[in-house]
Amino acid sequence: MLQDAETAKQPTPGGLTEDDVRRMVREEMEQAFERDPGTRRASIIASKGTLDWAYPPLILATTAAAAGMDTSIFFTFYGLNIIHKDSARKLKVDPVGNPAMPMPMPIPDIVSSLPGMVPLATRMMRSRFAAHNVATIGDLLDAAREVDVRLIACQMTMEVFGYDESDFIDGVEFGGAAAFMSQARRSHVTLFI
Questions:
Q1: Which domains does the chain have, with CATH numbers?
Q2: Fewer Cβ within 10 Å of end Cβ, the chain: N or C?
Q3: pLDDT, mean of residues 48-68
């Protein structure tokens, strides 16, 4: 939650203000960057293509980039849905595939597998995100491009699924596993999502 400037200046029980803590974290990060340039890199693989799995790679990548890291996301297999021009239609939530998904009431698996439940679960998830002011996937993609996160689409997967470069949003790069490995081998943070 964002706080106003006055609250950031109020000391905590330990005597530190929020501004003090932010300064200390910033200084520690700068020292780490100086000791090892690899700490300036983050490489993420996005392999899932549902609405709920689209958030983690984008949130982590934009956070890493905002912290000053050279960040890339390699979209492969169903992760290509995240950067597809038609992502609003492609990114859905399947309640059967998400048994821990919070529902307004307990729903037996047999009911969640009925026709129409995927659109219902997707609408419910989008509604929950909106009610809590969570950015949309489109907003997160815009933010990623603004902070220079490299969005790399897996060429092999594109060929297998029959996608063309024109099927993807602006700013996407195209490369194979070697393109990702080139970035990942020089990164301290490498995540598979």
A1: 38-192 (3.40.1260.10)
A2: N
A3: 93
